[in-house]
Amino acid sequence: MKNTIPQKILIVGGGTAGWMAAALLQAVWAKLGVQISLIESPDVPIIGVGEGSTPLLRRFFSILNISEEEWMPACNATYKAGIRFAGWSSHAGYEQYFHPFFSAVDRPAVQVFFNDCDQRRNAGSAHIHPDNYFLAAQLANNQLSPVAITSEQAPSLEYGYHFDSGLLGAFLRKHVVGLGLTHIADHVVQVKQAEDGSIASICSQANGELQADLYIDCTGFSGLLITQALGEKALPFKENLFNDSAMAVQTPLPENVAIPSETLSAALSAGWAWKIPLANRFGNGYVYSSAFISRDKAEQEFRDYLGIGGQDVAIKHLNMPVGRIQNHWKKNCLAIGLSQGFIEPLEATALMTTQATIENFINCIHHVSQVTDAVKDRFNFHVNQMIEGIRDYIVSHYCVNSRTDTDYWSACREDTKRSTELEELLGAWDKGSSLIELLMKQGARQNYYPESWYCLLAGNGRFKNAMSVAPVVPVAPVLPFVPRAPTYAAENFNHLKHHFTDHRKYLARIYGRVL
Ligand SMILES: Cc1cc2nc3c(=O)[nH]c(=O)nc-3n(C[C@H](O)[C@H](O)[C@H](O)COP(=O)(O)OP(=O)(O)OC[C@H]3O[C@@H](n4cnc5c(N)ncnc54)[C@H](O)[C@@H]3O)c2cc1C
Fold it and tell me: pLDDT tens, 204-244?
């Protein structure tokens, strides 16, 4: 076995991050004789939110060799073609837009979209809207599955998932414990350090002292190992992102109605609300800034928005520290999940960051001949680049909003701190100069394709002479975007729609039962 691979790994924490780390490490290293254990406290609950993914989760299950037929029904999972943003712009014709996951089938559309946007940025006056170009937007508009039913000549689309986060953790636990991982239900009371500052052992209530070569901190926001024991400081993003609170509630999914294949992100007075369709219910949440609205007022607004004002439904409230640590891999400790940082869930990127960090760690270990401080520095640099790139994309949603109805939206537009790279990007877009060249120059820091940047900027109507209308107060359910004239996407959709079926019906095939 390669001598850089740790022989004994102890994962502390059994939330989604802990079980994802356990599953990936087990898949890659258990066959080499690496002993992996996971300890989770019976007294500290998991955060219990986090129900949307990006397409990267497909690779996770493919590495584990687990089919959709196996895991999706166990987690009440559905398909996600992208995210619909509603009410973020007050420019006429841009009341909403869809941010799709891009696929090979979109390549011709992308080129046309870029050209049309570039013309409009420079001189034109045509109405350019991303939903007029991409197949996924049309599939979501029609509540179709983004997975094709026929295999021959059917286009293969990228897609993500929605799932019950508690059930996903339980599914992964059963999977990895079945493959031999040691699972300890016990509370960690102390982290003992060696003279050099590394972790010497972990003391637990019932199982005493536990030792390993590598300790993985998956203890969530508490950062029991990396922050509390090793003293890694949080670097807050509160100047970039004002939202620091959230609330969540489940609502019923009526039987026999279509299941959307999209996440809805609707702007409210001091933040935004998510609506995530699972196979058996909706997950809803309001992410907001406590500096602009009180908890009670936010809850009332959220209840009204969902139409559950008078109902006796309990809403779960959460604090949301937004930021990151500097060293995700420090001494013999690796932080994964909320313990390494968190950016608000606007693009559902947390589990993607979790997965990417674990995969990068495994790759790094496989490619170096010795684990030195320089190796750790390089690893930490890349993880930080990834996190900051995601942060910039999220921040830009707030910078380009054009709502004027509340102080919150004005502050988000005018007062959010922007990185130099983000300033350059917005400047280049506004000036009409090449965004693609700039994105290439920014290189590794960029996690988002140019397509995503164009969708965000065009979808918010950030064009010269865009006409403003009264701010839109979104209502649930938000009606899908209806193109005004035959469009590229509509033609493409008409040509390809026979490959796709109703999302609920497609799920029934995967679930092996009527839904
Ligand atoms: C409002 C909100 C919405 C979100 N939406 C999304 C989304 O749509 N998509 C997405 O990808 N992510 C989302 N996330 C992030 C996502 O929820 C988390 O990344 C994910 O759940 C992983 O959490 P975790 O495992 O790091 O921490 P947790 O779930 O908090 O788990 C912590 C674990 O540590 C254990 N622990 C703590 N202390 C001890 C101790 N002393 N001894 C032993 N064990 C201990 C606990 O028992 C628990 O098992 C969202 C987050 C928030 C706040």
Answer: 999 999 999 999 999 999 999 999 999 999 999 999 999 99
CB 55 within 8 A of CB 101: yes
Residue 5 CB neighbour total at 10 angstroms:
19
CA dihedral 239, 288, 248, 38 (to 10 degrees): 0
Ligand 1 atom with minimal separation from the 43 CA: 47
Task: Measure 228 CA to ligand 1 centroid, in angstroms.
Answer: 17
Rounded Cα gap, residues 389 and 446, in angstroms = 5
pLDDT range class, residue 492, cuts 50, 70, 90 = confident
Which of 317, 402, 376 is CA-nearest to residue 91?
402
pLDDT digits (tens, 9 = 90+) for 52-98: 999 999 999 999 999 999 999 999 999 999 999 999 999 989 999 99
The phi, psi pair for 222, rounded to 5°, reads -70, -25
The structural domains of the chain, ordered by start, are 8-51+164-237+325-371 (3.50.50.60)
Structure-model confidence comparison of residues 246 and 485, the more confident one = 246
- What are the structure tokens assigned to 175, written together? 């999977």
Tell me: pLDDT of 392 over 60: yes
Secondary structure (3-state) at 444: helix
Task: For ligand 1, say whether the CB of 220 is within 6 Å of any of its atoms.
Answer: yes
Q: Of 87-91, 180-184, 309-313, where does mean pLDDT reach its minimum?
A: 309-313
| 476 pLDDT tier (thresholds 50, 70, 90) | very low
b/e map 401-414, b = 16+ CB within 10 Å: bbbeebebbebbee
- Burial class, 261, CB count within 10 angstroms (exposed 0-12 / middle 13-18 / buried 19+): buried
Helices (H) and strands (E) counted in the chain, each on its own, are: 15, 21
Task: Report the residue among 11, 16, 290, 324 best suited for mutation to probe ligand 1: largest number of ligand atoms under 8 A from its CB.
Answer: 16
pLDDT digits (tens, 9 = 90+) for 291-303: 999 999 999 999 9
Q: Which of 8, 31, 80, 331 is catalytic?
A: 80
Of ligand 1's listed atoms, the one at least distance from the Cα of 189 is: 41
Mutate to test the pocket of ligand 1, among 37, 46, 99 (most ligand atoms within 8 A of CB): 46
Verify whether residue 80 is a known catalytic residue. Answer: yes
Q: Are 403 and 86 in contact (CB under 8 A)?
A: no
Tokens 């712009």 found at: 89
Comparing CA positions, the residue from 59, 72, 70, 50 lying closest to residue 27 is 59
